[in-house]
Amino acid sequence: ARETAAEGGVEILIINVGKADAILVTVDGMHYLIDTGTQKSYDRMMQALDRRGVERLSGVFLTHTDKDHGGGMKKLSESDLPVDAWYAPAIFYEKKPEKHQAAQAAERRDQEVVWLAVGDEIPAGEDGRFLVLAPLQVNEGNENNNSLVLMFESPQGRALFTGDMEFDEEDDLIASGAD
Known about the structure:
The chain has 5 helices and 10 strands.
């Protein structure tokens, strides 16, 4: 049975994609996907989006390049589901920019990835927004510490999305005084 996604207000759905991440944020009827799970869990993620009545994604955020976060990007970009924007952190080190999953996904759609940096703001719905809090600096020892960290804010409240941020990035974030 298809469920109706929130038309007014905010809904956050953590999609069960096994040991991976895929989070759907619905704001005023607009849908934003944070990470796409693994390639193997792609069908499960798409079934969840279909059950929520998602017919278009206003944005897809890839927090970092690990396969358990971006494994579904290729299949999503090859699907018929419209995507308005592809987002990824401007700081990463394990891939060349043209090999980055978000860049490749956007290119398949004749779009360009939006490389996000600290301080960037993405409007969401009528009164919501995603604020980019991190990564603050490149970490060449652990790609998890280059995770895109987003603070979602709306009149209904706030939510922090951290990718796979570990202690080094957490320490940087706390020291920055961002929140």
